[in-house]
Design a protein that fits this description.
With about 575 residues, the chain is mainly alpha-helical. Helices cover about 60% and strands about 0% of the residues. The radius of gyration is 24 Å and the shape is globular.
């Protein structure tokens, strides 16, 4: 069912291929990404392991320390683990007991991971590197690979196969999804749960799932808040979408309200276990069901960021708005320039009635509401609180909902045979894969670096400091192991560029598309060069990361150190 303006084509029979997009030939429309591209994407997710124990990554370790405490000591506080394994940041303290300041879902989800590793490691302790590796693998990496499957299925219902697959690959490797899948943090978990909840609502709204699908949507919504408190913003968008899919229907008001009431009841029932568990956790740790750890932050320097408003969200600040979007260090459009396509693409969504379905109109208004909501959030929350991370991390949950408008704009360019526009759009996608991909090779970005590529990533790679990976764990020395993965990343970016720059009736990109792609690359590269300072802050950050690098040049990364003197 198309969300673009115009008549909705009939749904094909289950045994038939999906109908091609308007203006496309059946041969080109049916050609999506080859299996080698999907294999390369999966390999990058499964093999890369940007982690350096010397950084004592607080957002990750505070959660894992609680997982260890639950297994080893049967307590929610992590006092004993802090004594055994050392201090970490991002903590809350109440009545002398220390807890992670984060929402608890990932801490509890990692309990079985630690329990299995503990059984393997006996009688010795579980080393930190395998604990982080397997926690990421099972709780952030594999769920995101599952999310990419859902995203692809959803986009293929609204876009041609080539555009849908290229955008899915770009989302997977050229957005915050890649960066935060390779960190044991809750931001990509939030994106996975939000989109899974949306997917459930979407299938129910189309009549393809029974009403019990609203139970799953509610469970995803409840789990979202239990994983990341600010995920509540995305949940509000899902609530709006679900309500509008009923209210926009052509049916008597009484019937629409009855259906909405049943859906709301089922969704609430699905969310209830997670919400109740979260409130019980707050009661047990911080003394009240609605009090989170941010009220009792151990580091008083972080307190001002979370005081006032709701969880630190106040009135908008132009500096926070601008830097969150176009900062050369961690701007959303700097790292993922393909998301610029979503801005004109919003005009291709069906906000009005006419031939558009209720679901299409609901999706349009949800997308607009999420965009405005997240923009308000990033504008009114302290920009300085993003920390040593890749990009504006709290916008991670928004990104998958921008894929459809970006894809609809690409489809418009293809339908019109706009070679220059296709070349620009294709390079924006390829550049996103290279920019975010290379930044993710580091994935711990200091606050005072001038430019994420020129100020930090490029100097590290030039000196041979490539990310640790399964290849280096298996004995391949650096930088050879890292260069293999870099070649894979570049190859995938090349496929995306070629696929999107090629018009439907062509076998390859025409000259105008290639010229436009080259000019776009030149503009983006110039912007990075001009914003790279190469000053003491850049050099100091590079030297510091080199000093704690897990697998420096000429070595392979130790995975499970052998006990010994």
């Amino acid at each position: 069912m198309s969300l673009a303006p115009g008549p909705v084509p009939p749904s094909p029979a289950p045994s038939e291929p999906a109908a091609p997009a308007p203006g496309a030939t059946p041969a080109t429309s049916a050609r999506g990404a080859p299996r080698a591209v999907w294999a390369a994407l999966a390999a990058l997710y499964l093999l890369l392991f940007p982690y350096h124990p010397g950084l004592r990554s607080p957002n990750e370790l505070c959660r894992l320390w609680q997982s260890i405490s639950l297994v080893e000591h049967g307590t929610l506080d992590i006092n004993a683990v802090l004594r055994e394994r050392g201090y970490v940041g991002d903590l809350s303290v109440k009545d002398g007991k220390y807890y992670p300041s984060k929402a608890p879902l990932l801490s509890f989800a990692a309990v079985p991971v630690y329990a299995v590793l503990r059984a393997v490691a006996r009688p010795g302790p579980v080393p930190e590197v395998p604990l982080v590796f397997f926690s990421r693998l099972f709780l952030t990496v594999l769920p995101t690979l599952g999310l990419l499957w859902l995203v692809r299925k959803y986009l293929r219902e609204n876009l041609s196969a080539r555009v849908a697959d290229a955008l899915t690959v770009t989302y997977g490797l050229g957005s915050l999804a890649f960066s935060y899948s390779l960190l044991f943090m809750s931001h990509q978990t939030t994106a996975v749960l939000l989109f899974a909840g949306f997917y459930s609502l979407w299938r129910c709204a189309r009549g393809e799932w029974r009403e019990r699908g609203y139970l799953l949507a509610g469970a995803c919504a409840g789990a979202t808040v239990a994983a990341e408190y600010t995920g509540a913003l995305g949940v509000l968008g899902l609530v709006l979408y679900a309500a509008l899919t009923f209210l926009f229907r052509e049916a008597p008001l009484r019937e629409r309200l009855k259906g909405l009431g049943r859906a709301a009841g089922l969704a609430t029932l699905g969310a209830l276990p997670f919400v109740v568990a979260l409130m019980l956790y707050h009661q047990a740790t911080f003394g009240h069901p609605l009090t989170s750890g941010y009220k009792y932050l151990n580091d008083s320097g972080y307190q001002p960021w979370h005081l006032g408003g709701f969880l630190g969200i106040r009135t908008p600040d132009p500096r926070a708005f601008t830097l969150s979007l176009i900062s050369p260090l961690r701007g959303l459009f700097t790292l993922a320039p393909f998301l610029l396509l979503a801005i004109p693409g919003l005009t291709r969504l069906s906000f009005r009635g006419g031939s558009a379905s209720a679901e299409a109109r609901a999706c349009a208004w949800m997308t607009a509401a999420l965009g405005l909501g997240y923009l308000y959030f990033t504008s009114s929350f302290s920009y300085d609180s993003w920390g040593w991370t890749t990009g504006p991390r709290h916008l991670t949950g928004l990104v998958p909902f921008l894929l459809l408008p970006a894809g609809l704009w690409l489809e418009r360019l293809r339908e019109r045979g706009h070679a220059v526009g296709l070349g620009i759009g294709a390079m924006l996608c390829a550049a996103a894969i290279l920019t975010t991909g290379l930044a993710t090779f580091v994935n711990y970005i200091p606050d005072d670096v001038s430019n994420v590529l020129g100020g930090l990533t490029e100097p590290l790679l030039r000196a041979g400091f490539f990310p640790p990976s399964v290849l280096s764990f298996l004995g391949l020395p650096q930088p050879f192991a890292g260069k293999v993965l870099l070649a894979v990343l570049v190859a995938v970016a090349g496929w995306v560029l070629t696929a999107l720059a090629t018009r439907e009736d062509q076998q390859g990109p025409e000259r105008a598309s290639l010229v436009a792609s080259f000019v776009t690359l030149l503009v983006l590269t110039t912007a990075h060069v001009l914003t790279t300072q190469g000053d003491d802050a850049d050099r100091n950050a590079t030297r510091f990361l080199q000093s704690v690098w897990l697998a420096p040049p000429g070595s392979s990364a130790p995975f499970w150190p052998r006990p010994g003197p």
